[in-house]
Amino acid sequence: MNGISRRGLLKTGVAAGVLGLTGMPLRAQTRGGKLTAGLSGANTSDSWDSRTHSDIFMIACAQGAVFDSLTEIAADGSIKGELAESWEASADAKTWTFKLRQGVTFHNGKSFGADDVIASLNMHVEEGAQSAAQPIVAAIEEMKKINEHEVEFTLAAGNADFPYLMSDYHILMFPAGMIEEAIQQGIGTGLYAVESFDAGVRMTAKRVTDHYKGDSAGFFDEIEYIAINDNTARMNALMTGQVTAINRIDFKTEALLNANPNVRIQEVTGNQHYTFPMLTDVNPFDQVHVRQALKYGINREEMVEKILLGHGQVGNDTPIGPANQYYASGMDQLMYDPDKAKFHLEQAGLTSLDIDLSASNAAFEGAIDAAQLFQASAGAAGININVVQEPADGYWSNVWNTKPFCASYWSGRATEDWMFSTAYEAGVPWNDSNWDNARFQELLLSARAELDSDKRREQYTEMQQILRDEGGVLIPMFANYVQAVANTIATPDIVGNLWQMDNGRMAERWSQA
């Protein structure tokens, strides 16, 4: 939380909400021109329904350009207002009052107000909704319209991280009474209005005139995001000038980019982590000793060396990373130990284990190679892994959260509770291991409402230890964000590390050189 205490956030909610719209001081930036980005993470099933967004292509299109949220994580990790002008909380962090910006309009001309906030949040908890933000919104007991530009939220329990949660890329603001139309056409309040959208192929948009962010953001006249899921094709597109920015460079070909005088590489350290989740309610992963055998059967150091080529650090099976306030850096590190892996297999009543591991480079760059390294290291412990190479298209809908054991990645979150409540709280849609530990769930609820920082550190440290020892997600490595831009594009001194491509907000924060 960038050094801001929870009590401080309650007391300075109004101040935090009225920071400058850019969030960070920027050098003078050139207006005009076009940003053309080649991005991975696109699927033919993509849509403007933010409840379904799961990868950088739609994050950059939606929250990064066409839509807005109530709050925004600035490039330096601080929280600031976007459509919310300011906020205040009760002493117990259970009641929050958000004041909304006035004079904001959707791209179809409708004025933005309190009704839109309530309708947009209710999308995530309506019957049949499949939204990763469901646990965030479900924690709101009541939403009350105070007036056209003020909304009061009453939570089921205190949560001083609530302003951070309102920046979630799933929780975008849609026009009340026109939500289906907005999903079909991409109608938001963002800096750019949609010109064309071909799911899984490309999106084009033009800068809105007279936008409420004025001249402080959105420096390009137009943007074009091209879906290029293939790694080599994405790099070639930048090298040949077809695009001016790409995400996820292939570390194996990094030298080629470095040798090109017309492009530069950006490397940002955040909480992105590469994972192998297993469904803990499916045999044999429902046995803790099997999970522990796999934890000791993976060579983490080898993966950082051979997959990341040093662009990251080893993971310890907890999603809380070095950019988090309560990262348990002193926790004993899990090490590759085939003898311990064999021991845990024996404790599970097994002499060997045969399992499938589904992987695609759609999960993360080098995922197939990482799965094969895992196959080799685990084999020394009698764990026989069959690597199933899955197609990239449809990976997130057909494999992740569906197949019992697969490759995945997470960007991490700005706060511990945000990360845990999104992916580790029992029963939430994106708990991709279906893991449920009674002590962990108890700590999750108590830490969420705890305002004493030292007590929270103790609770979050214990939660990380439980995940390391018993959890159903292997996290062998934290990976830096490594992306590349043409020298015709200017970027700020500080680039966001929450998501790829400056938190997905390159259209807002970057400009022509």
Instruction: Supply the helix-strand structural class.
Output: alpha+beta
Shape: globular
Distinct helical segment count: 19
Tell me the fraction of residues in β-strands, as a range: 15-25%
Which parts are unreliable, with pLDDT below 50 for 5 consecutive residues or more?
1-8, 11-26
| Rg computed from alpha carbons, rounded to a whole number of angstroms | 22 Å
Q: Which strands sit side by side, in order, in the main sheet?
A: 8-9-10-1-11-19-12
By DSSP, the count of extended strands is 21
Mean pLDDT across residues: 93
Q: Describe the largest sheet.
A: 7 strands, mixed
Helix content: 25-40%
How far the N terminus sits from the C terminus, by CA atoms, comes to 31 Å
Structural write-up:
This protein has 513 residues and is an alpha+beta fold. The protein is built from 19 helices and 21 strands.
Provide a short characterization of the protein structure.
This protein is an alpha+beta fold and 513 residues long.
Layout: helices, strands, pairs:
Layout: H1 6-11, H2 13-17, E1 34-39, H3 56-66, E2 71-73, E3 79-81, E4 84-89, E5 95-100, H4 114-122, H5 134-138, E6 140-147, E7 150-155, H6 162-165, H7 179-185, E8 192-198, E9 202-207, E10 222-227, H8 231-239, E11 245-246, H9 254-258, E12 263-268, E13 273-277, H10 288-296, H11 300-306, E14 312-314, H12 338-347, E15 353-359, H13 367-379, E16 383-389, H14 395-398, E17 408-410, H15 416-423, H16 438-449, H17 453-470, E18 473-479, E19 481-486, E20 489-490, H18 500-503, H19 506-509, E21 511-512
Parallel strand pairs: 1-10, 1-11, 15-16
Antiparallel strand pairs: 2-3, 4-5, 5-7, 6-7, 8-9, 9-10, 11-19, 12-19, 13-17, 13-18, 14-18, 20-21
Helix pairs in contact: 10-12, 16-17
